Amino acid sequence: MNSSDKQGGVTDRKIPNSVIKRLPLYHRYLCQLMRQKVDRISSQKLAGELGLTASQIRQDLNYFGNFGMRGYGYNVKELHNEIAQIIGLKEQRQLVIVGAGRLGRVLIDYPDFKEMGFYFRALFDNDPELIGREINGKKIYNIARLEQYLQENRIDIGVITTPPEPAREIAEILVNGGVKGIWNFAPTTFNFDQEQVVVENVCIGESLFTLTCRIKEQIERVENILG
Amino acid sequence: MNSSDKQGGVTDRKIPNSVIKRLPLYHRYLCQLMRQKVDRISSQKLAGELGLTASQIRQDLNYFGNFGMRGYGYNVKELHNEIAQIIGLKEQRQLVIVGAGRLGRVLIDYPDFKEMGFYFRALFDNDPELIGREINGKKIYNIARLEQYLQENRIDIGVITTPPEPAREIAEILVNGGVKGIWNFAPTTFNFDQEQVVVENVCIGESLFTLTCRIKEQIERVENILG
DNA sequence: TAGATTGTTAATCGATTAACAATC
DNA sequence: TAGATTGTTAATCGATTAACAATC
Prior knowledge:
2 copies of one chain form a homodimer. By secondary structure, chain A is α/β, with parallel strands linked by helices. The first copy, chain A, contains 9 helices and 10 strands. Chain A has helices spanning 17-35, 43-50, 54-61, 76-87, 102-109, 112-116, 146-152, 164-176, 204-226, and strands at residues 40-41, 68-69, 73-75, 93-98, 118-125, 134-135, 138-142, 157-160, 181-184, 198-201. A 7-stranded mixed β-sheet of chain A has the order 6-7-5-4-8-9-10. Chain A has a 3-stranded antiparallel β-sheet with strand order 1-3-2. In chain A, helix 1 (17-35) packs across helix 4 (76-87). The longest helix of chain A is centred in the last third of the chain and has 23 residues, at 204-226. Chain A is globular and about 60 Å long. Residues 1-11 of chain A have low confidence and may be disordered. Chains A and B meet through helix 1, helix 2, helix 5, helix 6 and helix 9 of A and helix 1, helix 5, helix 6 and helix 9 of B. The first copy, chain A, binds a DNA duplex through residues 8, 16, 18-19, 42-44, 53-56, 58-59, 61-62, 66, 68-74.
């Protein structure tokens, strides 16, 4: 009865990363529409709002099933639920944060994550000042205990919010400890086998450079037009 | 004398976004090599370290000039300097942060930004508790004063670290106030004309969903192989 | 029925990879 | 010179866009 059995339905071709990245975006906007009591939406309107094309949205959704109705569009609530399921909203995930600095503490404090199914279990750091303290009811442990902790607790995702230097070694410990994903905020890249672990790099500083590069380009473009 | 005048050099074809995103990555790794006193590197080795292909790196660099030497590779220091110039390292940029919550305070506290040329000038918030306080020597102003502040000070980039609801309105004020870029941490998208302003969205929460989606896929793939 | 909008195939566009002559 | 590695062109791959029959 699930959508992939539907006639004209979905084969299990690999989902492109570009599509996966847009799913949370769709989900967020559908939440908003639900709050506004909108109950239907066309790919056209959705596209306009999100800066995409209608074609792209229909293509994306058809990787997962036929959620729309010809001549009508998509039922907001239904599509919201389908996407929630696809992205695994509310499926419980256990996380630990390595690096109890400012950024680590921002993440563990953020209340929405729990609602989304992300449970931060503990923090780890090497700063004696921090070890033993509690933040938001979560203990900061000595990083030396990370390996043991991972043996005793099933953790799905390890979050790295340390400086770049120790990041690689920490990532190794996390992977050996059985995490399936690393959410990496340290400006470092890892070279793990993709089969072993999925790494998501959040390059905050680098995105600021990307922004300035694009500004520069934009200014040049305008100058060229003006002659 | 600049590199784009060299024979076999560079036309001003548009630089793809995918290329721009990789430049800070190159820069960061070259810094690391410099610290390690490495003075030459081939596209091959660079690629291996960064998880790219040699071809890709050579293609990327050739958008900007011919920085390598056949049979030798790239001089680390020279390439580092070229890329620093391309990404505008140390070119001074003036920024304001709107939203003096935890995330805003993480950003304004981060010392490396100053070295990179990013100068955070002020924070704005609507919380009476926060207005008038100082963080890291920067004052928190009433958001009602943002418009006026932008008229009196040339600000290049506006950073939005508020909840999603006021983000759109704030973005409007920033754009009308003449910022050339928006670095947006709020989970909202804007629909500005690209000519007007460059927007860089940092979707922290969404990247966590991307991670879990990819983990799910990975697990399915392994299960399929095991039968 | 007429109008709207999907699902889906085909065409286009862009980015990555491969290949190799040029040359250090 | 022989070996290495670039710069650059051509081939491939993948993602986006366009188009339209299907159908609500």
